[in-house]
Structure prediction request, 357 residues.
Amino acid sequence: MRFASLVILSVTAAGSLTGQSRQASLDSLTAALGQARQTGSFHGVVLIADSGRIVHHSAHGLAHKGYRVDNRLDTKFNLASVGKTFTAVAIGQLVEQGKLRWTDTLAKVLPDYPNQALARRVTIAQLLSHRSGMGLYWERLFNGNWTAVRTTGDLLPYFVDDTLLFAPGSKWFYSNTGFAVLAMVVEKVSGEDYFQYLERRVFESAGMVNTGFFPLDVDVPNLAVGYYRGEDGTVKNNLFTHTVRGGGAGGGWATALDLLKWAEALISGKVLGAATVKTMTTRQTADDRGGGYGYGFIVMEAKGRTLVGHTGGFPGIATFFFMDPARRRVGVLMSNDPGQMDRTIRRSMMDYLTAPD
Prediction:
């Protein structure tokens, strides 16, 4: 098995970093990746940046096992739920434009939403923070004609008749349905197709030239195919396990470098004003895992630091995207064959993000 060579900018070479703790975390990361290289236990890309400077960027393993194609630094990986941050920022932009309010009900924004009894009770803020009471559509979707789902409206039949799991605002429940509905809100309020809106208003604004919602039946260069183990231990690709294009709940594609651009765009105000970013990346509610959630962003406290970002997971997909906005530290892990080594790498990245100055 062939592996892409490591591309690491050392702390000394970077010329801008000091502190044994950060160096120790990079040394730990390098050691873990070296072991993975020998054992073939990690397939993906890792990136760490500090104050706008990349201090580690490396590619490992295979993007396509059948053709023995290596992952590269510019390989595009499926983001899974990290894509929720795109949907959230689109909503934030519409709020800034005065076309929406956080407190608006779904019924006010989507007066033609078929389930008005539900829509009258749920607000935009509750959808963004997973407190709407809406649930998940996965099981129903994958028992149906999921290969035909290519637009935001195509998902509607899979959840429109659902009842609320709890009174809106009373609990927290991670809801892909809620973010699928938010994509419909983007379309209704902006008057644009959801995917075109993101391309024009979000990705282009952030300089993310290698990010998009690419249909799986269209050949797009340099995409990593996801792999997982079936119940019998057979390695399988995930092309028949997730949606054809993705949507408001996630499923887009990006490179690690584009996610760094995404972090910098959020920090610098390229896509949203500072006040709106602060609102969205401030903990609005506790989640069910001992952490917190803002508006489309996970907000966690670790070693006295506030980290903001999101994770994404699905068979054959693991994405980790977090930043310390105050210090412009960013960590990205994108894997197309998740395993135990991913967790080891994440720990080293967390150590770096939370290390003292």
